[in-house]
Amino acid sequence: MNPIHRRRFLAQLGAAALAAPAVVRAQNAAVELTVAYSIPVLFKDLMENLAKAFMAQHPNVRLTLRAPEEGYEQIMQRNLRDAITNTLPDVAFHGLNRQRTLLERNIPVDLKPFMDADPATRELGFSPTLLSLGQVGGRQTGIGFALSTPILYYNTQLVKEAGGNPDRLPTSWDEVIKLAAAISDPAKNRHGLFFDWTITGNWSWQGLVFSHGGSMLNADESRVAFGEAPGQQAMRVLRRMVDEGRMPDIRPDTMFQDFFAGRMGISMQSTAQLGRYNREIGGRFALQCARYPVTAANGRLPAGGNVAMMFTKDAAKQKAAWDFIKFACGPVGGTMMVKATGYMPATTVPAQRKDMLADFYATNPNHLISIRQQDVITGWYAFPGQNALRITDVINDHLQTVVARKDGADAVLARMAADVQNLIPKKAA
């Protein structure tokens, strides 16, 4: 071989040898995904355990969990900023009612093509009814991860002491308020009731209005509808909880401590909190849950909770992201989620398998309350337009006025309806 050609051949061979490990490394390199979520008090340990379990099954994927945001509003605001700075996470878990705002900005990836192309989808047991909660504008913007309904929590010891019967708990707000008044005893530092009107996204207000047969806006979303008769009834019930049921003007953190310590008789909360109630109460008293009162024949309850959403547009990351969403929202992740919280999954498989949740539900009947309320479930309403988050705050401010007894229910409702009307998008004439 010509010396010059030989030197060139050896140089090329050496370069190839040096490059080979890099090629191997590139082929075996882990796909890195960032995952965002919120409400660490409920999800931090669960998300960390889910990530570990997923990566054990998928060694080619490395998940990085972002520091959790405090709530659904906070993660929404963070991701809207991320969209501007091109720093969106690859996967995010958002409140059901925030999907619309994200879709209006074209942030989430439609998951339906991934579902249709994956034969394993049929084995995941995704409930069509609950899948529909992740559909907006004809797209599958999310897959249900942790789903809930509002329920009532009862301290059965205080119920008995007040003359109530844990085997025949109230089915109407009249009965709830009457029992709460009987439990209330300032001399013993004992409160009868707390209705958590502060829950994110006006979820509690929607629950009151929907259960009375009302809606947030009219059909074409041009006019506020919660100021009509069902909304008036709903606001009056909230005020009756304060006046007749002696509900204190406190924050949820205080309520939780009072209830866990045995100083609160009845609590309206999301079923999401059930795992926390069980852990914090321990064996101090028996906890019993019951259905949320639905007043109207056409009454409904808003589904709460969150969905897993895909934000990444990178093809390799999308495959890994879909694998993680399947895992988290499917039977294995759903089983882990239910046992760690009080939510229900969007998959029907775990409840049918003894090695997953069949035995768990049989021995934990409080977890069945939310599942049994699926007959009245409806969507968690998302207000349209750029002021969606602001509307949430406006409604909360007015509800606080009622709970603080600063003005009457009807007067506050009229102002609240007018303020929200000014914030919804104007329809073209």
Note the overall shape: globular
Sheet of most strands:
5 strands, mixed
- The side-by-side strand order for the widest beta sheet comes to 2-1-3-12-6
Mean pLDDT rating: 92
Helix content: 40-55%
The number of helical runs is 19
Radius of gyration: 25 Å
Low-confidence stretches: 3-27
Short précis:
The protein is of the alpha/beta class and 429 residues long. 47% of the residues lie in helices and 14% in strands. The protein has 19 helices and 13 strands.
Blueprint (SSEs and pairs):
Blueprint: H1 3-28, E1 31-36, H2 40-57, E2 61-65, H3 72-85, E3 91-95, H4 99-104, H5 112-117, H6 128-131, E4 135-136, E5 139-140, E6 143-148, E7 150-155, H7 156-161, H8 173-183, E8 191-195, H9 203-211, H10 229-243, H11 252-260, E9 264-270, H12 274-281, E10 287-290, E11 301-302, E12 304-310, H13 315-329, H14 331-340, H15 349-352, H16 358-363, H17 368-372, E13 377-378, H18 388-403, H19 409-421
Parallel strand pairs: 1-2, 1-3, 8-9, 11-13
Antiparallel strand pairs: 3-12, 4-5, 6-12, 7-9, 7-10
Helix pairs in contact: 2-14, 9-10, 13-14, 18-19
Structure description:
By secondary structure, the protein is of the alpha/beta class. It has helices at 3-28, 40-57, 72-85, 99-104, 112-117, 128-131, 156-161, 173-183, 203-211, 229-243, 252-260, 274-281, 315-329, 331-340, 349-352, 358-363, 368-372, 388-403, 409-421; strands at 31-36, 61-65, 91-95, 135-136, 139-140, 143-148, 150-155, 191-195, 264-270, 287-290, 301-302, 304-310, 377-378. The strands form four sheets. A five-stranded mixed β-sheet has the order 2-1-3-12-6. Helix 2 packs antiparallel against helix 14. The radius of gyration is 25 Å and the shape is globular.
